Write the C-alpha cells for this entry.
Amino acid sequence: MNEPASREEKLELGVELLAHLEREELSLPAAIDRIETVTTSPALTREILDAAEKRGVIEREGARLRVRRGGTYVNYDTQVVRREGEFECRRCGTAVTTGHFVRLDAGELGPFGSSCIRKVTGRDDDSE
C-alpha cells in the first residue's frame, strides 16, 4: 500500500481527510479518531488540526469542529477501492479479508474494514 512516508505527506492526507467528511459538525475526539488513521503522533495531530483551520477546512468551537466544505465528500464509486487479502484495519485493528482504501489527492489511506471505512469518512458515526 502507498503509506504516506513523510510528515508533510501525513499532514496533507489528514487535512484532506477532514475536508472530505460527510458530517457538518463533530466532536474533537471524533475528529482525532479519524486523524489517528493517518498518525498517532499528538504533535502531528495538532498540526493537522491547525493546518485545517488555517486553510478554512474546519472551524473550532471549544471541543466541537464544524467542517466547512464545498460538497467534497468521498465518492464511494471512484475513491474507495476494495482489495482482497489479509489486512488489519487501520482504525480498529481487526483482521479483515476485504480491505477498503480511500484514494485522496494527497495519497491513499487504508486498509479499513467495511464498518470502519464508513466511520472514517463520516458516513456512519457512533463516536460522538
The mean pLDDT is 88. Helices lie at 7-19, 28-35, 42-54, 114-120.
